[in-house]
Amino acid sequence: MKLYTYPDAPSPRRVQLFLAEKGLDIPRQTIDLRAGEHLRPEFAAINPALTVPALVLDDGTCLVEPIAICDYLEQVHPEPALFGRSPLERAMVLERNHWIETNGLLAVMEGFRNRSKAMSDRALTGPRRVSQIPELAERGVQRYGWFLEDLDRRLADSDYVAGDRFSLADITAWVTLEFAAWGIRTNLPETLTSLQRWHRQLASRPAFARRD
Ligand SMILES: N[C@@H](CCC(=O)N[C@@H](CS)C(=O)NCC(=O)O)C(=O)O
């Protein structure tokens, strides 16, 4: 197994936090996105979508969606369980995770990729040139604000994003907040106290305290 990654970018960071929480260390190679290494033919031969993470299995299969990579690792290494421990818990983790991806991660991505100078003809990942839409950047930032308010309300009723147990959904939410801090320069408002409490709780976990 080998993981192609770039630790500073949100999607690979999700997988790396998942691995750290599992206590797994698998061989990895950094693909420097800033240097454009993901656009080179050598990496296109591994992942034609030109994105990281990419997990190449021993039989040559390549998984490129964080949810699929994490699910595979969960099946192969079930402990500690990060997708819940019952059918209902698993459904809640997947439900919340999808909600965070759609309303949080995607909103930040729209905000970042549609206004960053470095992304001027790369508003979407992949091999095609895609122009920026400034209005989409604005809407992404607005949508992220709504996401934070909604997440804060949800966290008023539970310790973690998908209930009383730490899960993949917490990793996705944490990475979304990190991405927003540098990607659209939006930090967590002091007024969102449940979110602040959750954030302190996660920051004390060893996997979250270090960067690798
Ligand atoms: N479908 C994957 C896409 C992964 C993705 O977009 N990765 C970004 C880094 S976070 C990337 O490789 N970007 C390359 C680029 O900007 O061209 C996901 O939803 O996570």
The biggest sheet, with number of strands, parallel, antiparallel or mixed sense and barrel status, is:
4 strands, mixed
The rounded distance between the terminal residues' Cα atoms is 18 Å
Radius of gyration: 17 Å
Average pLDDT, all residues: 97
Just name the CATH architecture of the largest domain. Answer: Up-down Bundle
Specify the number of helices: 8
What portion of residues belong to β-strands?
A: 5-15%
| Bound ions, cofactors and other small molecules, one mention each | glutathione
CATH class of the largest domain: Mainly Alpha
CATH topology (level 3) name of the largest domain = Glutathione S-transferase Yfyf (Class Pi), Chain A, domain 2
Q: How helix-rich are the residues, as a percent range?
A: 40-55%
Number of strands: 4
Which strand order spans the largest sheet, edge to edge or round the barrel?
2-1-3-4
Task: List the helices and strands in order.
Answer: EHEHEEHHHHHH
Pick out the low-confidence regions: none
Shape: globular
Question: What count of structural domains?
Answer: 2
Structural class call reads: mainly alpha
